[in-house]
Amino acid sequence: MEVTYTHCAGLDVHKKTVVACCLTVGTGGKVEREIRTFTTMTSDLLKMGDWLTQKQITHVAMESTGE
User: Fold this and answer.
1) 3-state secondary structure of 46
2) Which of 9, 30, 60, 65 lies at a C-alpha separation of 20 to 30 Å from 17?
């Protein structure tokens, strides 16, 4: 599979939580995956933003179920 974006994330947005999955290309071209869950409180959303910045995420896709 051809890698289009080397630092991307998917966010699954719920009423009380956001589950973030980051995919980054590590050494040797190996894809690394890390998943974290954050609450929807402002302080936790800011932590999520800091984490995504630290991971050098350049593209994000979001899904919201409304539940």
Assistant:
1) helix
2) 30
Residue 36: closest CA among 66, 67, 50:
50
54 located within any domain: yes
Are residues 37 and 18 in contact, defined by beta-carbon separation less than 8 angstroms? yes
Contact 34, 40 (CB under 8 A): no
62 burial class (0-12, 13-18, 19+ CB within 10 angstroms)? exposed
Range of the domain at 12: 7-60
pLDDT at 52: 98
Q: Cβ distance 3 to 9 under 8 Å?
A: no
Assess if residue 35 is contained within a domain.
Answer: yes
